[in-house]
Amino acid sequence: MEEGIKKEQHHCTEAPKILRFAHSWCLLLSLFAISTGARAFDYADALRKSLLYFESQRSGRLPYNQRVTWRDHSGLTDGLEQGVDLVGGYYDAGDHVKFGLPMAFTVTMLSWGVIEFRKQIAVAGELEHAMEAIKWGTDYFIKAHTSPNVLWAEVGDGDTDHYCWQRPEDMTTSRQAYKIDENNPGSDLAGETAAAMAAASIVFKGTNPHYSHLLLHHAHQLLMEEKHKEHAHILEQYRSKAEYYICACLGLNENNGSNVERTPGGLLYIRQWNNMQYVSTAAFLLTVYSDYLQNSNQNLKCHGKMVGHEEILNFAKSQIDYILGSNPMSMSYLVGYGSNYPTRVHHRGASIVSYREHKGFIGCTQGYDHWFSRQEPNSNVLVGALVGGPDSQDVFVDHRHNYMQTEACTYNTAPLVGVLAKLLHLEDLSFDQNHSSPLVASY
Description:
Elements: H1 2-14, H2 20-38, H3 43-56, E1 98-99, H4 100-123, H5 127-144, E2 151-155, H6 158-162, E3 177-180, H7 187-204, H8 209-223, H9 232-250, E4 261-262, E5 268-269, H10 276-295, E6 300-302, E7 305-307, H11 309-324, H12 348-351, H13 364-372, H14 403-406, H15 410-434, H16 438-441
Antiparallel strand pairs: 1-2, 2-3, 4-5, 6-7
């Protein structure tokens, strides 16, 4: 890179004086090359790959524009035994159970990201993919909400599924479906699914008003048995708790025991199993709250210390940069990003040869014997997956059986979409401001 820049600068200095415009343009290209070379992370690439991941997790009949070509149709009889169409939705992790709660949270976070950073995602050319990822989930929720007080909550059985290592296209495990209703309540699931559809209705309001209205209708049926009342005091409690948590992430609470722990490398650390889910959601919350403070011209007060929006955003950026490779192991925990990332992700479909390449049936035991236990990297790269991440000492062991660190989940990656779009926007803005070159402004 440096040698190439020196050559460009040499050509610039040798340019005839009569070609002042070309000379100035040449210098500008050199500045661009230097700036591009100095960029630590390619947030645009990370954003593209994050959204691609959701196509790897699709259940059901895959569309014609499916970009992840190592996947094929799966779960095409889901709900058949119960007389309901439950085909579609997402597998939330490396197994094949369709859990309603993580799926709803995933769609809520994707929708919230688009609501907050729609323009930035659009400028990056990823808005259509983001909306497709959301709609794949909400289409399923509409199917699963078969009557006002009935929501199908789960398809598949965790116990039998976890004893089997198969591609989703080969599934032989139970596809028993479970529902919540008046006799089998599940207010947390109903509430999160309603939130997902309500948030998605905002996303589609301008481009697909009929679909937006349909989502809002379903959301109302799941939340709203009583008339809405004033809940200002409840919202204030939420705000207070959110601010307390932000202060804890920043390490500014008076009682050190109430601050979020960090690894020696600076990563927020909550627990050993899939810690990155907490990092990505915290980074999203910090980013959104930073925008709120900036737009309202306020600061955050953490036990007497005033914190500006820049400090909050910078900390969120530090967490994203850690994920992308700024860490003691110099590893990207976003699969497929950079040159050093986990290659043995705990994921059935990714670890086994693609169904499109090898249509021969692979059974549970065969999957464990020939694919789970092998030392080689996965057959397919699970691009855009955010794995569980390192331990409390920044150590990561890339083994397929190390599911606490190498399994990825949709709700890990979902919060990244909005944050990456924001960081990309700020990077582009900074580049434009620093290189709105006076060299060519006079011509």
